[in-house]
Write a structure and sequence with these properties.
Elements: H1 4-16, H2 21-28, H3 32-40, H4 62-73, H5 83-92, H6 99-115, E1 129-141, E2 144-155, E3 161-166, H7 171-185, E4 191-194, E5 201-204, E6 210-212, H8 214-223, E7 226-229, H9 239-251, E8 258-259, H10 262-276, E9 280-281, E10 286-287, H11 288-295, E11 311-316, E12 322-325, E13 328-331, E14 340-345, E15 349-354, E16 357-363, E17 371-372, H12 379-384, H13 393-399, H14 404-416, H15 421-430, H16 438-451, H17 456-467, H18 495-501
Parallel strand pairs: 1-4, 1-8, 4-7, 13-17
Antiparallel strand pairs: 1-2, 2-3, 5-6, 9-10, 11-14, 12-13, 14-15, 15-16
Helix pairs in contact: 1-3, 4-6, 5-6, 14-15, 16-17
Length: about 500
């Protein structure tokens, strides 16, 4: 159907610019018939309902087909009649037309029936209900377009929403999304409705019954909320949160955010959620923030500590002092004697434990077959094997980002002690990172270079001075005691000492 804008363009060209029908047709690439219509009428004619074409073959069977569709709607979803099955039934009853006609008619009728579906308006009590779901978004991260998974939760009464982005929809992300949402809402809703997510549901049973994932049961028990699930194929039962996913995609991710990391992206999304609290809800004549402040008093209080949103695995230490998780290799200190450790996989970090003590923490790697190395883990081994210094992977990785002063220090030590002692001296300085912050050691190295004391003793001395600076002498305010101003500045009378000593 032609638009009013097209008609207007044609009419302006004809009446205001004086162009001919032929010229308009050529320039605008419209048929001359259309051009003449636009000249005669200011807008396209409205949709005219044409007469239904007779269907002499299928006509006598239309009511029968509709009866079969009614019957099909009452059947279990996976046992309903297909268009081909309906064709077979009415063919056996005398239909002589084509299968395509039946398929087209069934398709049109099912579209009409779908449009006829109506939904009830819903009303919720404060603190009682929330809805949660996953959505997908595209962002520019570190210069590349990346697909991210969006966890969305909304409180049904106030419409307060929380959004957090993850690289995947794994269970640890699912739990972390809940935890951060509960923090944002300052409480836990009493019931949360889900579409049948695999991170929560192990098996769908009859009706609303579900066999839930064991880990999800423990999570739900920790926060004391109830879980509720939509009927399969009836996601409209939680349409509010699905609309929220679309709202986030249209409003939070347009224009496309440009970030360097998931951390930066989630800071941005959090700020968008905060701003959205100021939006007015027409049905309430109040802002979301006003409704939420009233609602949060009815939420379940948060527990004293967060649930550990992680997956736990037993891992073995390989000969390179690494443990493997999801094909990636994470380093542990070389002095770890245990061969089997515990790995906790959080959405964005990895923790490795030995005897319930955390011995290593790494950012979680989302690639495959990568070495994730903390160079300090290998320094004690390098001290024992200084000959491997040049080719050791931990050192090569570290040199990419350590301060430029370290290269100056290393070169100076090598020139001073070319027999290998220079490297050993440098490794001893690197060991200072085990007990001091990177920033403090860097300052000490820089100070030692400035003082011309570029060796282990010099760096240690500078560390001590940085940690224990000389106490400064405070100047006394004697404005209220003028009699004391000259005290200490009077010349010393040595004759008094001579008298005490008996010297004449």
């Amino acid at each position: 159907m032609r638009t009013v804008e097209e008609y207007e363009t044609i009419r302006r060209a004809y009446f205001l610019k004086g162009k001919s029908i032929r010229e308009i047709s050529r320039q605008l690439k419209h048929g001359r018939t259309l051009v003449r219509k636009a000249i005669t009428h200011a807008e396209p004619p409205g949709y005219r309902l044409s007469k239904l074409r007779p269907a002499p073959v299928i006509g006598p069977y239309q009511k029968r087909i509709e009866a079969l569709l009614d019957e099909s709607d009452q059947m279990p979803r996976k046992q309903r009649y297909t268009a081909n099955k309906i064709y077979q039934i009415i063919r056996a009853e005398g239909y002589t037309g084509s299968a395509g006609s039946i398929h087209n008619y069934v398709s049109r009728q099912r579209k009409k029936r779908k449009r006829k579906q109506l939904y009830l308006p819903l009303e919720f009590d404060m603190g009682q209900d929330a809805q949660a779901d996953w959505g997908v978004g595209i962002v520019e991260m570190a210069g590349e377009r990346v697909k991210v998974q969006l966890f969305v939760m909304r409180l049904n009464y106030s419409r307060a929403r929380f959004v957090m982005a993850f690289p995947f929809q794994k269970q640890e992300a699912f739990f972390e999304g809940h935890i951060q949402a509960f923090r944002f809402f300052a409480g836990v809703p009493r019931r949360i409705t889900y579409d049948n997510l695999k991170t929560a549901v192990f098996r769908i049973l009859e009706g609303h019954k579900r066999e839930e994932q064991q880990a999800f049961k423990g999570f739900r028990s920790y926060y004391l909320f109830e879980s509720h699930y939509c009927t399969p194929g009836q996601a409209h039962e939680k349409g509010g949160v699905e609309n929220d996913v679309g709202y986030v995609q249209r409003n939070f991710l347009a224009p496309m955010p440009q970030v360097d990391s998931f951390e930066e992206l989630n800071v941005y999304l959090h700020s968008q959620c905060q701003q959205d609290l100021e939006r007015h809800i027409r049905s309430h004549q109040r802002t979301i923030q006003q409704l939420w402040k009233a609602e949060k008093k009815h939420l379940i209080p948060l527990p004293e500590s967060d649930y550990q949103a992680c997956r736990t695995h037993l891992v073995k230490v390989n000969p390179y002092s690494q443990v493997v998780f999801e094909t990636n290799r994470y380093s542990v200190p070389t002095n770890i004697r245990e061969k089997q450790l515990v790995l906790r996989a959080y959405p964005f970090r990895i923790e490795i434990l030995a005897m319930d003590a955390i011995v290593a923490t790494h950012p979680r790697c989302f690639d495959r077959q990568q070495d994730v190395i903390e160079p300090l883990h290998y320094v004690p081994l390098l001290v024992q094997r200084p000959g491997a210094f040049e080719h050791a992977l931990p050192v090569r990785r570290w040199r990419r980002y350590w301060p430029a002063e370290y290269n100056v220090l290393l070169e100076g030590l090598r020139q001073r002690w070319p027999d290998g002692r220079g490297v050993r001296e440098f490794l001893a300085i690197l060991q200072l990172h085990q007990t001091h912050s990177q920033e403090l050691v860097h300052k000490a190295v820089r100070m030692a270079l400035e003082l011309g004391a570029a060796h282990l003793d010099g760096v240690q001395l500078c560390l001590h001075k940085l940690q224990h600076p000389d106490p400064s002498v405070a100047e006394l305010d004697l404005s209220n005691h003028p009699e004391l101003v000259d005290v200490g500045t009077q010349p010393v009378n040595l004759a008094q000492y001579d008298h005490l000593l008996g010297v004449s």
